[in-house]
Each structure stands twice: as C-alpha cells, then as structure tokens.
Amino acid sequence: MKNVYITRIAKFLPNEPVDNELMEEKLGVINGQTSKARRIILRNNQIKKRYYALDSQGNVTHNNAQLAAEAVNALCDDSFSKNQIELLSCGTSSPDQILPSHAAMVHGFLKNGNLEINSPSGACCSGMNALKYGYMAVKSGQVNNAVCTGSERTSSWMKSDIFEDEVAHLKEIEEQPILAFNKEFLRWMLSDGAGAVLLESQPNGNLPLKIEWMEGYSYAFELETCMYAGGDKQEDGSLKPWSEFPADVWGKMSLFAMKQDVRLLSENILQKGVESLKQAMAKHNITEDEIDFYLPHISSYYFKENLYNEIERQGLHFSWDKWFLNLQKVGNVGAGSIYLMLEELVHSGKLRKGNKILLQVPESARFAYSYAYLTVV
C-alpha cells in the first residue's frame, strides 16, 4: 500500500457574501410575509455571512456541478493541469438532477479527457466519502492521483417559489398557509460553495498533509430519518419516497424541499457523534494529546458549546485552542464544509510540520459520521 497525501486544496464560493439581512431578499418571501422564524434560527446558528449561486435578482448563476468544476480548476496550474487527473470523486447532498450522476456532470464541465468518476450519495458525509474513495484508490495503487470534491447548491432548493404551490394548496383547503418548521428551518441554515483536494502518493507541494486513516460509522440501524428531501416522513417514522406519491401532489407537499426533524436532531446528533469519535480514536490508538487541530463540521454554533460539553461528559477533553471553525464566515455548505475548513486552515499560516489534524463530519440524514486523521509533513 502507498502513502496518500493531500498536496493541493482549493475552494470556490460564488458571488458576493450575503449577510443576514439580505437572505430573504435573495431567497424570496413566502406568501408575501417575511419569516418569523428566520431571526430565531439565525440567532441560534450565529452565521453572519454565506454565499448563494444567485444574482441580485435571484437568478441562478451556477449549478452544483459548475461550482465543483470551478473548485477543481482552482487546484490546477502550469505544473498540474486538469488533463492529468486520473480519478474524479465528487460528493454532494444537492445534485442538480437524479441522473446523470453528479461527478459525471462535473466531468462534463471540466472536459479533461477520459478518466474514472465516482459519485457518493448522501448528505454531509458524501464529501468525506468522495475523499475516502480517492484515498483508497491512490493507496491501493489503482491510480497515481485523485481529485475529490465536496459541494452544495442548496439555494435553489430554498427559494420561495419551491413552497408557493404548497401555500396555495393550504389556502384552498382553508388551513393556515404557514410552512412547517421542519421545512423552514433549513432555509436559514444552508449555503452554496465547493472545495476540492488533489491526492497523490508523493508528498508534493509546500505543506502536504498525509492521510493516516479514515473511518465511517452509521446509526441508521437504530435511528429513523432526520433530514430528508424527495419524500415525506410518516407518523410511524418511516419515509415515503416521492415515487410513491401521485405527481399532482409533489408541489402541494413540497416533497423535493429539504426538511429536518429538529427534535430528533437535538436528541441524537451530539451523543452519537462523540460515541463514534471515541470508537475511531480507540481503533487507531490515539489520544487527545495527539490532536493539534480539531475540525468538527457543525451546522450551527448552537451545537458548539453543547458538543464541547458532550465530549467532556463522555470522558474526552479537546481544549478550545485545538478547535478550528469557519461557519460564521462561509455558512453551512454541507458536503463542502470540511473542505472549506481545511482549506482555510492550510492557508492560515498556523500549521507546522508534525501537526496532527482530526476531521469530524456528521450527517443527520440518518445519523452517519466520517473521520480523517492527517499529519502535516
């Protein structure tokens, strides 16, 4: 088996940053009324700026595949061109279409010759699963290099017109035309962007990061669906997919909007996260003292202090000086968030040879967690 190094890392954030007061102007108001939940949600998540692939009139400027392709292009220069890429592995929770796959569409925009592609599905962990596929391919010698991406374009899923059919239907049946909180919650949480890394078997570059190991854990065997799109959650906790509904109710129920069971999220996301963290650390026999930088993907600063407390409760200790977050500046970019965090850390000037970095990515879809442990070489 070969060693695997992250030798380049890049990002692409579309357009100008959007502050909290401009969000509703970009996404649109529903039923002609400003959101009452928006300020509460923003006060809890503490996100100050985010990016949308929308222009000043709310028109789409980039689709998801274009965002990822831009991040890949940002990796390349005269010494490494996109035509040298041997494997393209792209993760997202908001693909532009059901078929073709996300990576196929990214490849279509890159137009960089014949290569292998991989498109892991899922939510936030899909970006890490894209990384793991590239990691295993380089490690096993199947390819000499791999480019992996994590990206999201959720703004178009959150625009007001997605919900207008449902609101109109509620008026028709004389019910209050207010969206359920599980639908509105994510409108003020998610944002757009992409990150990309180049993996190679040699420690090229100025400050390469060796991937020591990667791990993944799923709790779907014991927990029901929490975050979902393309279906509706039933009273018994099961998920009924869009394909089992008549086509004329897809809009009336906003079936393709992203939704979050907030109660289930708060009850499980931190506990299972620390439980899986302890499993990964025990498997690879590392302690807190062997982690210099801890990069946990959190969807909201509401979870920051609670995560710290849960880590302490379960017998670990990560002092605050180890934590590195950038949620307030770039927003929650789902599968792309961990790439954006690592990119900022790499370019921060804080890293020194020998530093150890732990990446932790949870996904609430049905509670899965991904980990990577890196060494600065």
UniProtKB/TrEMBL annotation:
Q: What is this protein called?
A: Beta-ketoacyl-ACP synthase III
> Does Acyltransferase count among this protein's keywords?
yes
Q: Does the keyword S-adenosyl-L-methionine apply?
A: no
Which residue intervals define the domain Beta-ketoacyl-[acyl-carrier-protein] synthase III C-terminal in the entry?
A: 281-359
Known Pfam families for this protein?
A: ACP_syn_III_C (PF08541), ketoacyl-synt (PF00109)
**InterPro entries (UniProt xref):** ACP_syn_III_C (IPR013747), Ketoacyl_synth_N (IPR014030), Thiolase-like (IPR016039)
Q: Where is the Beta-ketoacyl synthase-like N-terminal domain?
A: 120-202
The protein's matches in CDD domains, at most eight in alphabetical order, are given as:
init_cond_enzymes (cd00827)
Keywords in alphabetical order, please. Acyltransferase, Transferase
